[in-house]
Amino acid sequence: MGKVYERIDGRLREFIEAQPVFFTATAPLAADGHVNLSPKGRAGTWRVLDEQRVAYLDFGGSHAETIAHLRENGRITLMWCAFDGPPNIVRVHGTGEPVFRDDPRFASLVAGFGEADGPGLRAVVVVTAKLISDTCGFAVPLMDYREERALHSEFFGRKTDEQFATYCEGKDFNGRSIDGLPALPLPLPPRS
């Protein structure tokens, strides 16, 4: 049976922080626009900021649909599933804001992620919860976590900040969403 919570604390916080993957869901305002669902991973790349806010690091290498939708309307849902242990699904429905590299808040937000900060970082997405809930997760399969993939950091780790900015400008999917909404501010600002 599902339950609604007023804050992210205790058991919910522990559950979120222990998961190796989560999912983001966003959509444009246009009725014919494309809904976006993205998996997010890499150890330490999301954290609970306080009882109402979570944040995650947004890296290059894929489309910027989530950022485009957040810039247009701010709506986002995050979901964590238990793939081992007791079944559980936690969702945070709320508003999200991409904090870009030239924003004065960027450096202090990134510092809170410690070693998870790495090459190819485009923004920090801060999500403020409007509705926090969990459900049973009885239908979620049991799966074993093996290890982190190193491909992303290996690929972007070979690029300087300037080369990464050039990479972002050269990919159509960074500047505009598949529905034509503005995504990343290009040229990508240098890290402050």
Automatic annotation (TrEMBL):
Q: Source organism's superkingdom?
A: Bacteria
Q: What residue stretch is flagged as signal peptide?
A: none
Spell out the Pfam families in the cross-references.
Answer: PNPOx_N (PF01243)
Q: Where is the Pyridoxamine 5'-phosphate oxidase N-terminal domain?
A: 10-135
The record's section on PANTHER family has:
PYRIDOXAMINE PHOSPHATE OXIDASE FAMILY PROTEIN (AFU_ORTHOLOGUE AFUA_6G11440) (PTHR39336)
The protein depicted here goes by the name: Putative pyridoxine 5'-phosphate oxidase superfamily flavin-nucleotide-binding protein
Q: Which organism is it from?
A: Saccharothrix tamanrassetensis
